[in-house]
Amino acid sequence: MPLLEFNDRGIYCPRAQVYIDPWKPVDRALITHGHADHSRWGNKHYLATRSAAPVIRHRLGEVSLTTVEYGQVTTINGVKFSFHPAGHIIGSAQIRVEYGGEIWVASGDYKLENDGLSEPWEPVRCHHFITESTFGLPVYRWAPQEEVFADINAWWRANQAEGKVSVLTGYALGKAQRLLCGLDHGIGRVYTHGAIENTNEVLRQQGVALPPTIRVTSAVPRKDYPGHLVIATPGAIGQPWMKKFGAASVGTASGWMSLRGARRRRGADRGFVLSDHCDWPALLEAIVLTGAEHVYVTHGYTSIFSKYLRGTGLNAVALETDYEGELAEMATKKEDLDQENAAAE
Fold first, then answer.
1. Which residue among 178, 236, 289, 334 is least packed, with the fewest CB closer than 10 Å?
2. pLDDT digits (tens, 9 = 90+) for 109-139
3. Of the candidates 190, 166, 193, the residue with the CA atom closest to the CA atom of residue 332
């Protein structure tokens, strides 16, 4: 019996009778992070890191949730579980599973670049490694985030000189806060979409230091926006909510901006290549650092990436899962969008 197996509900540990990031309701779920494709409603009990818990509760309500610190070992029926930083978003974790000398790591979503906000990724040695492949093609290669933010700030200044509002999109948990921390706040004020500000408030309450923001509401006069910047969810673009800003330039921050045509499809004037997932070189580096001989490739370019890994001598297989990578948080929750649209009318 393998220590971990994959079934129609998710990644399962038969000996401990627990799931990791299940996509269907189960009795006991170990959660790598708070994004909706990894942390779903309906499980009887959840286990996550202490820093991921507030957002999970915010999104799922009053669920039965136990928290652990990074590196803390929890033993269930003889199987040892521990959570280790994944560098993806605040509170994100890789889950190490050990029994009888065999070690697996389920990485969830992760990135190697230290963004200065999330707990930095740490390599965890193992025999079996479960990896995403959201950007598992050689074409995906990220510039250092300092260069990306220099471009974003220059774009904001140029829009300001033209009297325009700069609207920058990123998903509400993770990307929005990373953008907020990378902006030059000496340029002007930063306003936020309601779904983003709701998440900001949860993070601030748990002690995360975020720069000041102003929630976009009907109470803010339209004349206050020109020259300043709004961080919005991608789902808000093209909606009535945007009317309040008048002349605006829309920028999108995503790994998908590497692709020709992606900016146009997102309704953006500018695209900035910034992802909370690994690019091609980082995926390969991470796998080497784990020392794993067996690699299981989920969500993304699974067949291409696993084929490449087999060519390097690894035992790599592609898996079908319900994870979505960077697509998971690209739309605003309907209730938030309805609220913002009502405020715009």
1. 334
2. 999 999 999 999 999 999 999 999 999 999 9
3. 193
Q: Can you give the residue ranges of every domain in the chain?
A: 5-139+277-327, 145-274
Task: Return the pLDDT at 264.
Answer: 63
pLDDT per position as a tens digit, 142-161: 999 999 999 999 999 999 99
What order do you get walking across the sheet with 190-192 strand by strand? 214-215, 190-192, 229-232, 165-169, 248-253, 270-272
Residue 294 contacts residue 129 (beta carbons within 8 Å):
yes
Residues 6 or more apart whose Cβ sits within 8 Å of residue 109: 32, 33, 35, 38, 86, 88, 89, 92, 132, 134, 276, 277, 323, 325
5-139+277-327 maps to which CATH number? 3.60.15.10
CATH architecture for segment(s) 145-274: 3-Layer(aba) Sandwich (3.40)
Query: d(Cα 52, Cα 126) in Å, to the nearest integer?
Result: 24
